[in-house]
Amino acid sequence: MITKKEVALFMQKRIVLLLIFLIVLAFPGTSAANLAPGDFIDIKGSWAEPEIQTVCRLGLMNGTGTDAQGFKVFAPESLVSRSQLACVLAHTFQLDYGQIRFIKEPAASDYYRDVDNTAWYAGDVVMCAINKIFDTMENFYPDSAVSRIEIARAIQQSFTAKGIMIPMIMSMPIYEDTNGLSQQEMNAMIFVNNTGIMKGEGTKFRPEDNVTRAELAKNLMRCIELSGVNENNNGQEYTAVVGQTFVVSLAGNPSTGYVWHVSKPEDEEVLTQTDAGYISDSKQIIPGQGGRNYWKFTALQAGTTEISMVYARPWESVQPAQTFTLKVIVK
């Protein structure tokens, strides 16, 4: 026979369970809300997970929304649209007016008939148009998926627009499916292939294949390595404008115990570090396998400061294995 005490205890348990259910129902995305940029529910185990996390933390790509449970999603296998590519390239290369001066502020409708001036991507499309990132046409076709060769041309033109010269081996890659490419397309294919931004598979480059968001994240990381500040800038000066962000990328190997220690900029009113990350050269943790460290900095106001870094084992009181300094001039 059930006692009154047992009935009361049973009812208390039911009330507690009901309250828990109501809390979860009312706040389905509570756990997801605490996820940092780049922490998406649908990239776990993805071949491009480290690259996706890093480009999102650097603010170069964003997620596509949330799922039914409120978790952020990236949609790594979704195809990249022309509007998405325009935004990504405008942010990665910080496209601007350059030396061009306008009587009035340019609008997207000045360049393309099918881009609304209020669209979320309109401003970035304008920057791409000014810098001739895409072929000039009456329509932009913002929702159309982009092909590998289109991305190759857009990336090559982005480097050209910013005046970034990349040393590379001038060899002709041989692919059996590139005979139909124009000379401009061939030049773009050679550029992305020889710089390691985008390579083919075996004997095929697959120029007309569409590109997924995961693949684009991988391409962007290589662009950052080539266009950002790296080992070649050690001891040099770097000029930025107020509001500009830039990335410092240095090779590292934490499996050896060595880590990069970043000193704060001498003048934090001029420059501030806003993010940092690391990507291994291999998805699996392999002893002795290195990777690259990334730091994101933002220029706050005009002035001069210096970034100093040392590569050492924290427990050793000896000279660091490497040092890196960069004088930053903000105008």
Could you estimate the helical fraction of the residues in percent? 25-40%
Largest beta-sheet details: 4 strands, mixed
Tell me the overall shape. globular
Strand content: 15-25%
**Number of domain modules:** 2
Radius of gyration: 24 Å
Termini separation (Å)? 84 Å
Number of beta-strand segments: 9
Count of alpha/pi helices: 8
Average of per-residue pLDDT values:
87
**What's the helix-strand series?**
HHHEEHHHHHEEEEEEE
Uncertain stretches: 4-11, 13-34
Would you give an account of this structure?
The protein is α+β, with helices and mostly antiparallel strands. It has two domains: 82-227, no CATH class; 231-330, Immunoglobulin-like. It contains eight helices and nine strands. Helix 3 (49-57) crosses helix 8 (213-227) and helix 4 (82-92) crosses helix 5. The protein is globular, with a radius of gyration of 24 Å. Residues 4-11 and 13-34 have low confidence and may be disordered.
